[in-house]
Amino acid sequence: MYGRRVGGSVVVALVTALSAGACGAGASEDLVIEGSPPAAPYRGPLYVPSKTVETDGPQARKTESGAAGRALECDGDIYAGGGSEPWSNGDGGATPEEGLKLYFEIEQPDVPRYGYRVEHEEAGRVLYSFDVHRRTKIAVVVAKDRKGRPGWGPETSARCDPAELPSSYTDKQPYRVWTDRDGHRVPISRLNSSAGAEHCDWQDADFLELDAGSDEGSADRKVYARDPKGVLPSGMLTSAYDGDVVMPAGAHSTGYHLDDRELWLTDDTSRAYVRTSDGVEAWPAVRPAMGCR
Predict the structure, then answer these.
(1) If you placed Cys at 153, which of 18, 102, 123, 239 could pair as Cys (CB 3.0 to 4.6 Å)?
(2) Looking at the structure, do residues 183 and 159 belong to the same domain, yes or no?
(3) Mind listing the pLDDT tens digit for each residue in 176-232?
(4) Residue 268 lies in a domain
């Protein structure tokens, strides 16, 4: 499973259709907790005008996510962010914490639902943050009685790439986070893999999504599949999966690992090569617009 950002929000994309140190949150399952603030708390204004833009990318998401995007402390780019939709009388919360709960009800984000702290407050607004190593990875600004938003509720939100969240959370998600040759977690916006969707009987297949380009959404973004039992539909793959091949001449290691899997590539992007403890597998590319319905 992977998240593709479009217009500041996370949407279901191809592989979603194909697949069904100390964290500041600690072990608590409470939505809001007490504890040490981030090392460098956000002290800017909690109202920063936000607007929807037609393009996508880190700068667009920062524009759309207002103060929440500015409160993040990502290792990489902003993964997702934006403003909230209006709601009706009676839907808003009576307290800031109820406003944070409404964020989860409205947005249904793929983020932890525990371990948020009050990072900053001002009249009518509160910034909640989810911190990892005392750095803000998820930020939600809740506001009171804004136009079209009676009571307390979300105004803007933003988050870093899921790979920057604790493994205690990401290990329970459908996507799998790879590591580079130095052991650092690779952003899922660059590389991730997942099992196939059970409701399509594809659970014996694996999918890998890779963006080898420098620009998000570039033509270098590819999806590959491992299909040892032949469960995927005819015509879905650009060639047959082969679980026992000789590594091609000119292939190079990306340095990306997942358990005993190591990703190798050649100049021919129609196949990705995965070296395991048992040998080398050739994963063919998935044809565009192919997915589980």
Answers:
(1) 102
(2) no
(3) 999 999 999 999 999 999 999 999 999 999 999 999 764 444 457 899 999 999 999
(4) yes
Task: State how far the Cα of 190 lies from the Cα of 96, in Å rounded to an integer.
Answer: 35
Same domain, 205 and 253: yes
Give yes or no: residues 50 and 128 share one domain.
yes
Q: Which two tokens stand for residue 267?
A: 């100049």
The answer to whether 155 and 72 are in contact (CB under 8 A) is: no
Task: Report the DSSP pairing between strands 252-258 and 221-226.
Answer: unpaired
Q: Is 44 helix (H, G, I), strand (E, B) or coil?
A: coil
C-alpha distances out from residue 159 to 46, 48, 111, 257, Å: 16, 16, 9, 25
Q: How far apart are CA 96 and CA 144, in angstroms?
A: 8
Two structure tokens written together for 23: 């964290």
Q: How many domains does the chain have?
A: 2
User: What are the backbone angles phi and psi of residue 185, rounded to the nearest 5°?
Assistant: -70, 130
Can you give the residue range of the structural domain that contains 38?
22-164
